[in-house]
Amino acid sequence: MNPSFAAPLCAVDDMRHTVQDGKLIVHARKKITEADPYMVAHFPGRTIYPGVFILETVRQAVVAALGERGGALADVTAVRSLRFTGAMHPGEELVVTAALGNSEPDGTVSADADCRRADGSAVARLVLEFRYPAGVDE
Predict the structure, then answer these.
(1) For residue range 25-74, what is the model confidence (pLDDT) as tens digits?
(2) How far apart are the C-alpha atoms of 8 and 24, rounded to whole Å?
(3) Which CATH fold topology does 14-131 show?
(4) In whole angstroms, what is the distance from residue 69 CA to residue 87 CA?
(5) d(CA 73, CA 66)
(6) Model pTM score
(7) Rounded to whole angstroms, how far apart are CA atoms 114 and 85?
């Protein structure tokens, strides 16, 4: 992964993508470790992976799957929906499956992401919009 996303946070350990029913499906994993520098103070005595980092895991995986276009990367332009249903703790693994919609006329690509623990229990559901910077050719 590109460390410039949210340095020093590399929010994706493993990522791949497939095509299913004509849609790009992104699969990503992030092992939650207490040794990561941002975990110490979030929250003392009950350490959790910050919710904004779950969003960042989805962001990094989708941006990597969309790839570079005209020397630029797509980025999140809207958070349409975000619901947390569980917390991630050190030692657990976050598993993301995001289905990407077709590009809209304005270049927007939607991502509907399901986030779970490795055991399958739900953690979050996100619907995000991505777009390349203005002036980037398709």
Answers:
(1) 999 999 999 887 777 777 778 889 999 999 999 999 999 999 999 999 99
(2) 28
(3) Thiol Ester Dehydrase; Chain A (3.10.129)
(4) 35
(5) 8
(6) 0.91
(7) 11
